[in-house]
Design a protein that fits this description.
Elements: H1 9-14, E1 19-24, E2 34-37, E3 41-51, H2 58-63, H3 69-80, E4 86-94, H4 111-127, H5 134-143, H6 149-155, H7 160-172, E5 176-178, E6 183-185, H8 187-195
Antiparallel strand pairs: 1-4, 2-3, 3-4, 5-6
Helix pairs in contact: 6-7
């Protein structure tokens, strides 16, 4: 996973920042990997290599969102630390929202919104050949974030592909979001879980 402070988010989203340096004991990402960078979306790693601090240039610093090399090195020492860990140079590009739907970050929901989600989940349960699954799957993902789909499916005795297809249905409602490995409940999904037991069916008035 790649984490960035809030001050770098706009630069990443605009493409102005496409490089980062990390001091790790071992690589935490791989070339070709796609990683969720909350809350702005996905970054796609194009390359990762071991380097030395001496090899870092002013141009590298600017691409990383800093004014010059000295500012970047000071940040690395303060925030990441050095010690005996290695330095990794990571080139990446912004991949947009990835496969997350836009409403996944929206938590300001009316009672009508809550009821609409409940009705859609109920329809998914009713149409399923293997019985009601939506609540079980949401709770499973909440308890086991970023766990491989194959392991999640095995926990509930389901086949992986069918399980993943069902999670896509939850994702389309903005309730979950995907990571390089596994899933998490989205901010919208967490709000839904919080309010579902308190909800009262909304009369349509028709």
């Amino acid at each position: 996973m790649l984490l960035f402070q809030k001050r770098f988010h706009d630069g990443i989203a605009s493409g102005a920042i496409d490089l980062t340096f990390r001091t790790w004991a071992r690589p935490h990402v791989k070339a070709g990997g796609r990683y969720r960078c909350h809350p702005i979306g996905v970054v796609e790693v194009e390359s990762i290599e071991r380097v030395t601090l001496e090899s870092i240039t002013d141009r590298d610093a600017v691409r990383s969102g800093f004014g010059d090399r000295e500012e970047l090195l000071a940040y690395m020492a303060q925030v990441q630390g050095n010690g005996d860990r290695e330095v990794f140079r990571i080139e990446f590009r912004y991949g947009g929202d990835g496969d997350r739907v836009s409403v996944a970050l929206e938590t300001d929901m009316s009672d009508e919104d809550i009821e609409a989600i409940a009705e859609k989940l109920a329809r998914h349960d009713a149409r399923s050949a293997h019985g009601a699954w939506t609540s079980e799957t949401l709770e499973l993902i909440r308890r086991h974030p970023q766990v491989a789909a194959s392991k999640l499916a095995a926990m509930v005795g389901r086949e992986k592909l069918a399980f993943k297809a069902d999670v896509v249905k939850l994702k389309k409602l903005g309730l979950t979001q995907s990571f390089e490995v596994g899933y998490e409940i989205s901010p919208r999904g967490l709000e839904w879980l919080r309010r579902r037991k308190k909800r009262k069916p909304v009369k349509s008035g028709r």
